[in-house]
Amino acid sequence: MYGIDQEILDRVIARRGRLHAYETIDAAKTALVIIDLQNYFMKPEYPSSVPAAREIVPKVNEAARVVRSHGGTVVWISTSSAGAEIFWSVKHKYLLTPAQERGRKAGLKPGNDGFDLWSELDIAEQDLKVTKRTYSALIHGSSPLESELRGRGIDTVLIGGTVTDVCCESTGRDAMMLNFKTIMLADALAAKQQSAHIAALSGFIENFGDVMLVEEMAARLK
Fold it and tell me: Does some domain include residue 73?
């Protein structure tokens, strides 16, 4: 299931007594958080492009429509590189070459093409748009996402977008540790390698929350 080893699923069932932690989802208290489906990660001409991210767009849009139609909240997260050489100097100084640093800073700069959300996304006027500064949208100082969710009475977070094992997993793990019920939507997530995608989902379902397909989530939404 979802590509996750049966041994892991068996451990999950033994620990919880069932596979899925959350049998029902209260739409009014739920936010679908879609991460980083920006041109920088979507357009083939960018070196950071994730081909699988273009393939999940129909599922992302389906998830957004069903959550919205049930009265839930849809949030589109974008990464900004503005000031990153200062607030995230470790990443830019030590983990990137100078050329990669210049490319990331230019590509994710607000106002540039790479920063914009992918044109094929089904974004509604009432949806929230939140800009983050680091991989996780919920780590202290990265974005106002937590306060936006708390202010709306949200207690459940659904995660989609890219990259599964980087920004999506980081945000999902932080959501759970901030006491949100958290579900990774397996077919609305994309990584550069399928093996990395499955590894992230495997670790998440075993220790941090739930993993579902969009269809499974929609069937539980009340």
Answer: yes
